Amino acid sequence: MNTFIPVILSGGAGTRLWPLSRQSHPKPFLTLPDGENLLQKSLRRAAAIPDVQEILTVTNRDYYFQTRDAYDAVDSREGHRQLRYLLEPTGRNTAPAIAAAAWELQESFGPDTILLVLPADQLVQDLPAFLAAVEKARELAQAGYLVTFGITPGWPETGYGYIEAGEVLMAEGSVLGHRVRRFVEKPDLARAQSFLDAGGYSWNSGMFCLRAGIFLEELANHQPALSRALGQVLSHGRRQDDYLELPQSFAQLPDISVDYAVMEPTQRAAVVAGDFGWSDIGSWSAFGGLLEADAQGNQVVGEVVLEDAQGCIVHSSERLAALLGVEDLVIIDTPDALLVARKDRDQEVKKIVAELKRRGHESHALHRTVHRPWGTYTVLEEGPRFKIKRILVKPGAALSLQMHHHRSEHWIVVSGTAKIVNGDEERLIRTNESTYIPAGTPHRLINPGVIDLVMIEVQSGEYLGEDDIVRFEDRYGRTPA
Amino acid sequence: MNTFIPVILSGGAGTRLWPLSRQSHPKPFLTLPDGENLLQKSLRRAAAIPDVQEILTVTNRDYYFQTRDAYDAVDSREGHRQLRYLLEPTGRNTAPAIAAAAWELQESFGPDTILLVLPADQLVQDLPAFLAAVEKARELAQAGYLVTFGITPGWPETGYGYIEAGEVLMAEGSVLGHRVRRFVEKPDLARAQSFLDAGGYSWNSGMFCLRAGIFLEELANHQPALSRALGQVLSHGRRQDDYLELPQSFAQLPDISVDYAVMEPTQRAAVVAGDFGWSDIGSWSAFGGLLEADAQGNQVVGEVVLEDAQGCIVHSSERLAALLGVEDLVIIDTPDALLVARKDRDQEVKKIVAELKRRGHESHALHRTVHRPWGTYTVLEEGPRFKIKRILVKPGAALSLQMHHHRSEHWIVVSGTAKIVNGDEERLIRTNESTYIPAGTPHRLINPGVIDLVMIEVQSGEYLGEDDIVRFEDRYGRTPA
């Protein structure tokens, strides 16, 4: 059998799930009520397919460490598979991403390699049905089809594209799928309803199964310019450890979808029915659907007091929320931003994000907790001439050897052990011990232990911006060339 | 002219203004949109009356320091008047409070002293009209009447008691007020409407003007038991500095209102019209009324994004709030609790507070920032075995000399200068310096400077409760006897 490689496409800001999903922490990283995020669920889904030895993830290079951290938590449960990454300098829609994946895997395993493309911001709730559908798609891909997965519409959704099925495709007396008659872009409500009434239409899920060589051939036929440019770009990638970092020129490739670039023009498109409890969690209502409702239809995460509230979705993990006499609201509370929206308008949350962007408010992009290769930091408080952070360093991780011109730092270890380089001195600081780093002193923070190191940092100085940092040495490649 | 003393009655939890108003920080301390709180406004109102040399405040002893701090900010603008306090061990309704004030002022200035009783949780927007009404009330009190202030009803409110006016009281050809025909307890809507239709009814504001001796006489006539018990209780008060602290036995006095105890049975009741822009800020709607509305009728404090929102009241001073497609909501955000309520149900906020009390949730009573005689502390973060506080010490103030059995403390000064006693050592710590207090070491923190001292305290230990404190010496009388 041909080599079979799941390709997880991870990206997209998910602005409709603000304020939990933000540019620095997009939808694939959104923790679901069961404690796992969509990216981890995608990995587990991919790993559950038989004969999968390796999984490729295409993501932005800014999310590389955060993605590895997320996978690490899953891998320990699911057994190790080879993980490989394609890192984009900037998101470039699905055609360049899938083409790059096909090119990379053709290089490694030959043109007959079959790719299963899985967007990381989707949820599949019926795993056996998913595996059965993948099996059918695999057979069709083997036979040379470019296979999409079509979701049987539950309602006349206007937020998805539709696929009209054509001639049935069988093998050994059983239906595998259908040829695609045509793709339809997001319809209006009347048209969507007519598709439901007519039958034979399904939602375009964005999942694909295809042979690398055939996909690249079709790309060359229908998008010759993109195809040629891609070869150029990929030959300049920087290969290191488990990833191929695509060069800055990747950002010049056309920003087009795989549907538009290949699936619509090709004669080889097929569709397999994907009735496996699919959802793209495209709104807070969809998120609420993952939560059990109480007798009044309220779906709640966190400590909430409900006084005559009905049909509300509440996510408030760090603060008490009290509702009185309200109905059909979405209330999402985060440490630095609160959303209160009418439930049936939740598709418009992106308008809020656009307005925040216009105002230059950092909550459109950043969370108060910021992920770094070595762990996280959370700003607890800022004031004139001081800033307080909680810093978490993963076991074995280290911050860069660095220096600040304008601020000094007090460090107090509240959990774990820190190895500190402070000027010429190097020493261990244990729980409940502290040290002081004067401005202008090169210093480094390392967690030499096997449990998380948690530290409180109190910064003091006339300028406390994150850009007052001189990095001398960094194991995550963040020193200037 | 008789001595004239404004008496500010400060107390009451103001549960309808949760989560901003709480037991530890009740309605009189609520900061209004103009930056001043109701208590400060009450003081300024009292101080604006001609010939006022002294002002008495009756409050709970827990609010003594917080009250003085609030007044200090006003005094600097308004010129100094003698301030005196009656401190209750527990709130006991208006009859015991006003009786205690009358008794105390009769002791000091004789029975002819005129008291002007002002509840501290009310707002008066037309000061000249207020002063004119007080002048009339003063004349009537002088003549022996127990005078109430009646507010001309703007609508058939069911939340207030009503006063029916009787025979007109004149002096030198002009109307001073009326005798009171009767007091009516909170009516239902139909009855309230009938009062409006009939005319001659006003809202009972809870403000009074009366002569100490006459009030105490009437109290003895109509509440002989309370009158006798009061004398007993007051003789055991502890007089110190500028206050008389009432003994614990005060809590055994009957919990009755002055209306019920004296005003209703007496033949000396009079009412003066109080058309001076009175409000008791009894709900979030009333609070919203103090804010300018935008074109969509939204009344907002803080950084708020409004996307098609109408008629909402939003108070979010520390976090961004985004509203989408909602109308007529009250949204009040605080560091540890959020309220989202339908505006026309805002009288029911007290139900939320009752539920929190039932659950034992501390947000019904405490704010994250806690007031102490020496300043404030704010818990920034709590975790296993650590707690981080921001501590603000007022100029010249000092914490008690204390010791903890189970926790050590790191102190970092971020603003101002600290004088620190740490075991046998005493030294100054300046901005950006730190010190360490091991568990079991007696220590003390003093602000010797003239600006606020702001410190970050990182506590570490196996038990971090506020009750792990041994006080050796305290200038605020908090050491065990």
Automatic annotation (TrEMBL), chains A, B:
Gene Ontology BP terms: GDP-mannose biosynthetic process; polysaccharide biosynthetic process
Keyword Cytoplasm: no
Domain MannoseP isomerase/GMP-like beta-helix: 302-356
SUPFAM superfamilies noted in UniProt: Nucleotide-diphospho-sugar transferases (SSF53448), RmlC-like cupins (SSF51182)
Keyword list, A-Z: GTP-binding, Nucleotide-binding, Nucleotidyltransferase, Transferase
GO molecular function: GTP binding; mannose-1-phosphate guanylyltransferase (GTP) activity
Enzyme Commission (EC) number: 2.7.7.13
Nucleotidyl transferase domain segment(s): 6-288
Pfam families noted in UniProt: ManC_GMP_beta-helix, MannoseP_isomer, NTP_transferase
Name of the top EC class for this enzyme: transferase
Catalytic activity: alpha-D-mannose 1-phosphate + GTP + H(+) = GDP-alpha-D-mannose + diphosphate
Leader sequence segment: none
Residue span(s) of domain Mannose-6-phosphate isomerase type II C-terminal: 360-474
Family from the record: Belongs to the mannose-6-phosphate isomerase type 2 family.
Name under which the protein is recorded: mannose-1-phosphate guanylyltransferase
The organism of origin for this protein: Acidithiobacillus caldus (strain SM-1)
